[in-house]
Structures are given as structure tokens and as C-alpha cells.
Design the sequence.
């Protein structure tokens, strides 16, 4: 396996599996964009998120609690969790300028540097506040308030440009993010090193588990759970010195059988892509959308409003 080409292969196989809805979202968003009054489009989501209870930005992180401090009997049931308004969650992969050999499908996963900077600037200019998984967990399980206009930024697959390009861009606005690490890539060319992952964690970002080598969770049997979930998670805990509580399914693909296996291995929540959540286990099927490389800031905003 050529690891330097892996993200591209992952992108292509994801598209061929039909798990990717970003393309159709992009079309819908573009249609919505042309019909929306441009002056009001960026403010249009205030009604959408108004039903999320919000609090002062400085206090929201501390009052919510964490999976370790919120007892099981104080957590809302699945129906209550499912009924709460969803927080928009964006999923990024590579942040770099397009190359001639990048396929049409791959460009959903490769956001050009200026496009990325413009997307993040739009979020900041529009008054969004980034939240982290513990805040989302507390909100979903207890109704704890969130900052106004909450959004979660997530980065998958350990790509180096997430450290060299995304990190300084987010820093500019005081934004924090979640980095879902596939551990096989650590230290390989064009991927982050262990020291960089540790630095992201030390700087207040959250490190999540994204398997050892990106195999589809639906196909795991027996020892695969150790290889793909247990060992990589332990390695990330050794690197960061913190417990790892959150998981992102490779390709967003999951099945109900995977959920008890994740629970057994210390995961408190897991993230899919744009498909439907599991009504029995909404914490283990939290939705995200892929922020496409084709999307202008306005299209991204429309997609956030329309998808959550
Ligand atoms: Zn991935």
C-alpha cells in the first residue's frame, strides 16, 4: 500500500460506496444560493439555531460537564437526545491547492488554501463559536447551554496540512477543533508526527480515534477491534496523556453491531457523515457534513443551515 496516496484512494472509494452526499448537497446549496437574497443569506440561520439554549461564551465550556462527570442516570434518553436541534459539524480532510491529477470526486476532500481561509473567516465574521465534543456531549445528554451560533470543526486522516495550514488559520480566530487520527500514518511523509498531534492536544484541541489504517468498521471481526480501535486509541492516549473519548467512523460507515464494541473500548460518542442517525444510539451516530473544496463561504453556510 502506498500511504502517500491513501487519502485519495479513501476519497475515491468513499464516493464509489455512495456514502458521500457532499456533491448533492453542493448542488442543493448552489440552487438555494441563487434563490436566496444575498444580503440576508448569512444571517438566515439565526432562527435555525435559536432553539439551542445558549450561554455566555466564557462559561459554556465549564458548566456542561464531561462524559466522566455526567453520571449515566443523569443523561437524557435516546428520544430526547435525537429531538435536540443538531449542532452543525464540518468535516475536513486535505487543505491544499488542487493539482492537475486530482479527480473531480477527490476535490470534495481537498479544500484549496484560500477557499479554506475564506470558509473559516466567514464562520468568524458570522459570529460562530467553535465547540468541542465534551460541550456537545453535555448539551446532548443534559441540555447544557452552548455558546451562541455553535459549530464544530473536525479534521480526519492525519494530513500534515491540517497542522501547517488549518491550525494557524483557526488560531487567528481563537477557534479549536477535533482531529481524528488514523495512527498508521503518524510520522509518514505528508502526515502529522506524534509531536504535532501532542501539540494540537496541548493547545486545547481534541484528539479523536479514527482507526489504525482506515478499514471499514462494518467488516471488523474478532481481533480487528483490537487492531483498529483498542491499540490505536491506547497509542493516542500515550501521545496526548489524555483519555480518548471520541471516534469517527472511516468513510462515515457504521452498523449497529459496532456501537457496543466502541462502548466497550471507552468511546463516549462517535461521528458519522451526513446519513441518518440511529434512533437507539444517537450519541454514536452524530452527523457531520464534508466541507467541500468546491464550496464558497456562502455555499458552506447554506449547507450548514440546510443539513442540520
Ligand atoms: Zn477518514
Sequence:
Amino acid at each position: 500500500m502506498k500511504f502517500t496516496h491513501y487519502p485519495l484512494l479513501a476519497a475515491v472509494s468513499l464516493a464509489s460506496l455512495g456514502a458521500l452526499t457532499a456533491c448533492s448537497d453542493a448542488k442543493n446549496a448552489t440552487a438555494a444560493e441563487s434563490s436566496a437574497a444575498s444580503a440576508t443569506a448569512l444571517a438566515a440561520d439565526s432562527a435555525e439555531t435559536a432553539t439551542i439554549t445558549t450561554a455566555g461564551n466564557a462559561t459554556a465550556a465549564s458548566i456542561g460537564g464531561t462524559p466522566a462527570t455526567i453520571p449515566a442516570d443523569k443523561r437524557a434518553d435516546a428520544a430526547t437526545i435525537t429531538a435536540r436541534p443538531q449542532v452543525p459539524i464540518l468535516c475536513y480532510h486535505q487543505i491544499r491547492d488542487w493539482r492537475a491529477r486530482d479527480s473531480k470526486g477527490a476535490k470534495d476532500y481537498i479544500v484549496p488554501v484560500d477557499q479554506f481561509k475564506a470558509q473559516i473567516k466567514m464562520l468568524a465574521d458570522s459570529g460562530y463559536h467553535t465547540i468541542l465534543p465534551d460541550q456537545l456531549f453535555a448539551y446532548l445528554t443534559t441540555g447544557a447551554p452552548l455558546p451562541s451560533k455553535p459549530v464544530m470543526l473536525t479534521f480526519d486522516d492525519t494530513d500534515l496540512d491540517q497542522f501547517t495550514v488549518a491550525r494557524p488559520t483557526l488560531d487567528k480566530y481563537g477557534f479549536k477543533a477535533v482531529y481524528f487520527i488514523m495512527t498508521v500514518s503518524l510520522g509518514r511523509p505528508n502526515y502529522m508526527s506524534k509531536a504535532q498531534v501532542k501539540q494540537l492536544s496541548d493547545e486545547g484541541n481534541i484528539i479523536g480515534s479514527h482507526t489504525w489504517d482506515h478499514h471499514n468498521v462494518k467488516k471488523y471481526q474478532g481481533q480487528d477491534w483490537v487492531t483498529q480501535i483498542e491499540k490505536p486509541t491506547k497509542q493516542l492516549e500515550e501521545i496526548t496523556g489524555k483519555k480518548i473519548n471520541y471516534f469517527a467512523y472511516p468513510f462515515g460507515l457504521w452498523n449497529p453491531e459496532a456501537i457496543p464494541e466502541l462502548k466497550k473500548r471507552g468511546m463516549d460518542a462517535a461521528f458519522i457523515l451526513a446519513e441518518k442517525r440511529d434512533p437507539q444510539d444517537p450519541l454514536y451516530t452524530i452527523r457531520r457534513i464534508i466541507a467541500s473544496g468546491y464550496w464558497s463561504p456562502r455555499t458552506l453556510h447554506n449547507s450548514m443551515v440546510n443539513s442540520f
